[in-house]
Amino acid sequence: MNNKKKTRQLVITAMLGAITIVLGLTPLGFIPLGFINITTMHIPVIIAAIVEGPLVGGIVGLLFGLSSMANAVLRPGPISFVFYNPLIAVVPRILIGLVSAYVYKALKNKDNALIRKFTMAIWIIVSAFLISLLYKNINGKKEAYQLILSVVFLLISLIMLYLTAKYKDNNFAIAISSFLGTMTNSILVLGLIYLLYAEKYVARLSIPVEAARSTIFGAIITNGIPEAILSIVLVSAVVKSLKRKR
């Protein structure tokens, strides 16, 4: 590895790692979109993994995990105890970087008409979801900033759909890497919470024990899928911008 590449990787690791820590230790890590609140803390990890590979992605993921543990200690809440365990707070976050990097590496050169159509289908689904969310926010008379955020993400999604349709350069690999990286985090974190702390977890939320499975795994759908969609939108926009500059 040449010195220029090492320097670039150090800079990107430091920059995205710092962003991850700030998101993890402040309310900036959560975006209120009206009917749902979703996290953005995994997004710098996925960007690092796609742009610089598994090592950098894993390191930024490690920083994400450590910031989660620190946040649980510094700002304890009813369910913060689950993030005292590095198996929940750290390991899934490292795996975000590894999964995203290797999926992107496997798919980045697979550019054909079928994949391009599949990519367009993904952006159509994402756009439809964001249109639905915007409609609900308007009918629910949400705050102006929530409406603005919904519109911004919708515009980004529509722009990515247009670029996919117009240009042959494929962003399918970015979209799938973002989706699977996000779901790695959601499934592993919530799955481990269920296996290790299910009863204690739902008790802290004042939820009946018999509803533990539906509550914990239901969060994969209610939070994991919207977070994956947001990840696809933001990661695609950032990575394609970085690649153009390069």
Concise description?
The chain is mainly alpha-helical and 246 residues long. The chain has helices at 3-25, 43-52, 54-74, 86-89, 91-107, 113-139, 144-166, 172-204, 212-245, and strands spanning 30-32, 37-39.
Total helices: the number is 9
Order of helices and strands: HEEHHHHHHHH
Bin the helical content: over 70%
Oligomer: single chain
**Radius of gyration, taken over Cα atoms and rounded to an integer in Å:** 18 Å
According to DSSP, the number of beta strands is 2
| Mean of residue pLDDT values | 82
Key terms for this structure?
single chain, 246 residues, mainly alpha, 9 helices, 2% strand
Folded structure, characterized:
78% of the residues lie in helices and 2% in strands. α1 packs parallel to α3 and α2 crosses α9. The protein has 246 residues and is mostly helical. It is globular. A two-stranded antiparallel sheet has the order 1-2.
Fold topology:
Layout: H1 3-25, E1 30-32, E2 37-39, H2 43-52, H3 54-74, H4 86-89, H5 91-107, H6 113-139, H7 144-166, H8 172-204, H9 212-245
Antiparallel strand pairs: 1-2
